[in-house]
Amino acid sequence: MGFLVRTAVLYFLLLTTCAVAAPGGVAQQMLTETNLARTAPQRYAGYLLDLRRQYQGRSYLMPGTAATFVMTTEGVSALDEAIRFLKKQKPLAPLTWSQGLAESAGELVRDEGGSGEIGHTGRQSGGVRQRIERQGTWLTRIAENIGYGPDTARLMTMQLIIDDGVPDRGHRKNIFTPDFRVAGAACGPHPSYQNMCVMDFAVGFH
After folding, report:
1. Nearest-angstrom CA–CA distance, 19 and 42
2. 156: how many CB neighbours lie within 10 A of its CB?
3. 61: buried, middle or exposed (CB in 10 Å: 19+, 13-18, 0-12)?
4. What percentage of the chain has pLDDT greater than the value 70?
5. In this predicted model, what pLDDT tens digit does every residue of 95-112 receive, in sequence order?
6. Would you say 196 and 122 are in contact if contact means Cβ atoms under 8 Å apart?
């Protein structure tokens, strides 16, 4: 699809968080985790290596739990591929928080939090370009990541980087697109998958 928007969904069963579309909370932590992955990819590979120890076949034990297993599509192969990618990835510049992009992400979180739907087009809020352009003017390129399930920013970011079940690894590509300079995020409850986070990216936004 245009503007590097990828439609791909991660399904997990975890806990609920409150909707956030401003600096602070899980949304700001999503940017912090994304920037850590961008600026120190080899360090981030270590977090994935720790997760690898939890795998049993196509499922893994959720960190911090005694018996909560998450079923994957590809099993450990997607995780191993992500680790190899991170070990070779050159550090990138960190992204700067954009409140306008956070507001566009928040529109989708509120929309799908009410409707229970998934994907990049909300019943009320529309598509990513519509939502972003209601908040301001973007430059050159935009993209959007959506994750459903994990209740912490690190777990959500790791799953977006692994991109299990997404053939083109579109979420990972968005995180590691060098041209992107700004991003905003929002997280909140989802009626089917407990939690969701949306991150919108742009080369520039005002």
Report:
1. 31
2. 30
3. middle
4. 88
5. 999 999 999 999 999 999
6. no
